[in-house]
Structures are given as structure tokens and as C-alpha cells.
Design brief:
The chain is mostly helical. It has one domain. It is built from 3 helices and no strands. It is rod-shaped.
Length: about 120
Amino acid sequence: MQANQDRDALASERTLLAAERTFSAWIRTGLAGVGGGLAVARALVFQSYVHQVAAHIVSGLLVIWGASIFFYAIAGYRRTCAKLAQEGLPENSLGALMLMTAVLLIVAMLVFWITLQ
């Protein structure tokens, strides 16, 4: 009986760790989008005003896409944590991950705003 409980606890722990790895992968993808948007806004210099506006639109879309991935990652991770909580897994680092992601999102938006100035 104890062995089955230990296996169940370990399986839940592996599931939580897998969810954290997935969350981390989504955050990396979002950061790539934000970084790509910043690179387009700053690194590409055009003589034509139309091309400059197009570059700013593309960079804005990339930053918005990256930021939306942050929210998607949080939603997926929260859903997984809720399922694991129903199975009796102890509290995890959901609050800390959400706080770090929020700070990351705010910093990304500030950098994007500074970049467009």
C-alpha cells in the first residue's frame, strides 16, 4: 500500500516538473518574440517613412505575440496545477512563477516603449 502511494506521489511530482518545463519553454518562446520585435524596431533602419512604419508595426506585432504567449503559458500552467491540486499534490510555486512572468512582461513592455522613443 505504501509503495503505491509513493509511486503516485512521484508520478504527480514528475507531472509538475513536466508542467514547469513546458511553462519555461513557452516563456522562452515569448521572449524570443519580444526580442525579435525589439530587434526589428531598433536594428533595422530604413530611409523610407513607409518602411519605418512597417518595421514598427511588425515589431509591435512581435512584442504583442510574445506577450500573449506569456499569458498562454500562465493559463496552461495554472490549469495543470489545478488538476494536480485536486489529486492532493501540495502547493507549488504558481505564485512565484506568475510574479516572475508579470515582472518579465512589464520589463519587456518598458524596453519596447523605450526602444520606440
